[in-house]
Amino acid sequence: MNAEYNFAYLDEQTKRMIRRALLKGVAIPGYQVPFASREMPMPYGWGTGGVQVTAACLTPKDTLKVIDQGADDTTNAVSIRKFFEKTAGVAVTEETREATVIQTRHRIPEQDLDETQILVYQVPIPEPLRFLEPRETETRKMHALEEYGLMHVKLYEDIARHGHIATSYAYPVKIEGRYVMDPSPIPKFDNPKMEMAALQLFGAGREQRIYAVPPYTQVVSLDFEDHPFERGGAQQPCGLCGAHDSYLDEVIMDDAGTRMFVCSDTDYCRARREAGHIGAMGVPNAEDAA
Amino acid sequence: MINIENVSKNFTLHNQNSVVIPVMQGANMLVQPGECVGLTGSSGAGKSTLMRMVYGNYLTQAGRIMVGDLDIVTALPRQILDLRRDTLGYVSQFLRVVPRVPTLDVVSEPMLAVGVTREVAHERARILLTKLRIPERLWSLSPLTFSGGEQQRVNIARGFAHEYPAMLLDEPTASLDIANRETVLSLIEDAKARGAAIIGIFHDEAARARVCDREVDVSIFTPKAA
Amino acid sequence: MTPLLQVTDISKYYGSRLGCRGVNFDLYPGEVLGIVGESGSGKSTLLNCLAGHQEPDSGAVIFDTRADGPKDTVTMSEPERRMLSRTDWAFVHQNARDGLRMGVSAGGNVGERLMAVGARHYGDIRGTAIDWLDKVEISDERTDDRPSQFSGGMQQRLQIARNLVTGPRLIFMDEPTGGLDVSVQARLLDLLRGLVRELGLSAIVVTHDLAVVRLLADRLMVMKDGHVIETGLTDQVLDDPQHGYTQLLVSSVLQV
User: Fold this and answer.
1) Is a pLDDT exceeding 80 seen at residue C49?
2) ipTM strictly over 0.90?
3) Per DSSP, which regions of chain A are E strands?
4) Whether residue C39 has pLDDT greater than 50
5) C167, C173, C159: which is closest to C84 by C-alpha?
6) Alpha-carbon gap, residue C4 to A253, rounded angstroms
7) What digits encode the pLDDT tens for the residues A159-195?
8) Does any CB of chain A come closer than 8 Å to the CB of residue C123?
9) Cα dihedral across residues A26, A32, A37, A43: positive or negative
10) What angle do the packed helices C152-164 and C106-116 form, to 10 degrees?
11) Are the CB atoms for C143 and C106 separated by under 8 Å?
């Protein structure tokens, strides 16, 4: 850890301010708590909200995992992991099971999380109604008065236009039967996982909002009686590990357009392969083929 | 029953030095159910004025106008509206309608207003329009495009669509040929037969003689010049 | 019979400038009240105060609610008033853009109020929306089109359908035919009259057009400089105006 920085970069007062916001968020699941987002050494849109929440939660004994679209080895995941190694000196890991704090962009790990873990989401636009109702004054009132008809109008429009609800990510959910929330741009495939044992925290740096879903909280994806929520899923198993139940990425193999589908969650795929599962295009115990 | 008691009216023209024009004073008239009273008097004597006062279209400055149990002079607007819908019919000289509404609907409207179903209303409207010799091909058109005589007949059809216990008829036979005038007069006789109290203005003496039981010359109510 | 709306002594000032003052009237079920006046008369201020869009400085607007009987909507809590304006009240704006979601389909616009009060069956919502579009003479082929693709008259009719779908008992209208072609106005007026009669609606219509008010309103209030200067049956106020300003107004109408 670099001694020039306070632990996890942020000063203690800022961390306390963020923790107060987090406590409010936990007390009112799904409610967007405004907070004074700080200048971070990365631009808006690169996870500053998630980073601030993680920074406020980390203790020296934590083990941190950072994923981006399920992968530990993309540029963003690597940068943020290195950032915390430098400023907090905490242990880092790629194994979901080993981590105590997991910061994620746009995916929930396939591996079930437990009560000792915290999942921190990076959120671009926290307001689920934003694109239907641009006025912040109005959306705040709508949340306060539980006026969510407009949310269903969006789903209605989808069905009218496409025959089914076309929203495939950032699919709106209702928390504990009260607040409608944007779960961040995770695929709707991940929505059912949001009813979990771990604490889920959401940070939007540019929009300056924090919200939370405590463990074992009811999370219901919005739908219609005659068009119930469908999580979707792959039509085929992972090419590397053969998993049928994980979210897959499509990978183009060559200029001819040959493609394979592999688990988006790299750690999950690796663990399955280590355990002996082999997919159609996989090689025993090999690293990523693509 | 219509009872006009000691009624007076004047007009105040504020934009012409607030000149006050008294047009009626001490008017009295009683019309029994089944009776038709004809208003006479020269043009400008106040025939239409009196009729409009009974309808509530003009304000009355003094006196009482009883239509059934309601005194028009002191009634609330709401009460007059109810009266006009259920009890008091008025056939004016001019056809006033919403543009582009078909004739059949124009004639049906008073019936719909009292709760008659659309089918029944349309059926009765057809009967009336047929009686008044409005060709069927015109029923789906707006009457505003019709000739003066045709408009008058649509006006009458509308006026007689609902069986009002009291009716005010302002020149109902004007601009009608003999056949149609005959039809209108028999409509009036039917109304009298069912007990309606009617006040009418007829320029045509023969028509007046036929349906009116009495005549009242309204010029006796005109205030004498100062 | 209890009045549907009892308005007592409504006043609204903009700083020291008078919006409207001392307005009193009752409105009964099935009645249409017209409010006319020229620009600056205070009629729009009054309408906004009645409909809860603005808060009056004094006075009461007592509405006979379904659940709790007569209640003063001025002192009602905001959530209650917002609920009222989505269910038992309707507001037709002069400019359809203010009363519609231009980025949402016609069906979605009509269905929104239903979804806002808990409807969760897509098929039923769509069916009801199509019924209402039919009532306002919008072809069901246009159900999925956006209002931005509609003519002005159609947008106004869509606004009416959107408002009436929850069966309100009181409808506020601000220049409902303003800006529409004359030919379109006529059909809209007839539609409004039919709906008022069929559904037993009460309506308060603000307009500067005397011809519209004669055809639409049973009773009339004439406003000038923030005050009501004359009130009565529409035909009586227009045919036998008592106040000097009303006489001026009536005599100024151009003949066609």
Assistant:
1) yes
2) no
3) 33-34, 63-68, 91-92, 101-105, 118-122, 173-175, 179-181, 199-204, 209-213, 219-221, 248-252, 259-263
4) yes
5) C167
6) 72
7) 999 999 988 999 999 999 999 999 999 999 999 999 9
8) yes
9) positive
10) 20
11) yes
Tokens of B93: 């000289």
Residues C147 and C145: their CA atoms lie apart, in Å, by 7
Query: What gap in Å lies between CA C218 and CA C35, rounded to an integer?
Result: 11
Give Cα separations from A242 to A73, A187, A267, A281 (angstroms): 21, 20, 14, 9
pTM over 0.80: yes
Q: pLDDT at residue C31 above 50?
A: yes
DSSP state string for C25-73: EEE-TT-EEEEE--TTSSHHHHHHHHTTSS--SEEEEEEEETTTEEEES
Nearest to C108 among A157, A224, A225 (CB): A157
Number of Cβ within a 10 Å radius of residue C198: 11
Q: Is B172 exposed, middle or buried (0-12, 13-18, 19+ CB in 10 A)?
A: buried
Per the CB < 8 Å rule, is B57 touching C218?
Answer: no
In angstroms, the CA A210 to CA A208 distance is 7
Tell me the pLDDT tens digit for each residue of B17-72. 889 989 999 999 999 999 999 999 988 888 999 999 999 999 999 999 999 999 99
Tokens of B138: 């015109």
Known catalytic membership, residue A30: yes
Q: How far is CA A206 from CA A52, A184, A214, in A?
A: 11, 14, 23
Which of the residues B81, B85, B104 would you substitute to probe the C interface, choosing the one with the greatest number of C C-beta atoms within 10 Å?
Answer: B81
A228 in reach of chain C (CB within 8 A): no
State the Rg of chain C over Cα: 18
**CA–CA separation, A13 vs B61, rounded Å?**
81
In chain A, which stretches have pLDDT less than 70?
1-2, 282-290
B12 touches chain C (CB under 8 A): yes
Q: Is C247 in the B-facing interface, judged by CB distances under 8 Å?
A: yes
Mutate to test the interface with A, among C122, C145, C146, C162 (most CBs of A within 10 A): C122
Of C176, C188, C203, give the one whose Cα is nearest residue C95: C176
pLDDT over 90, % of chain C: 66
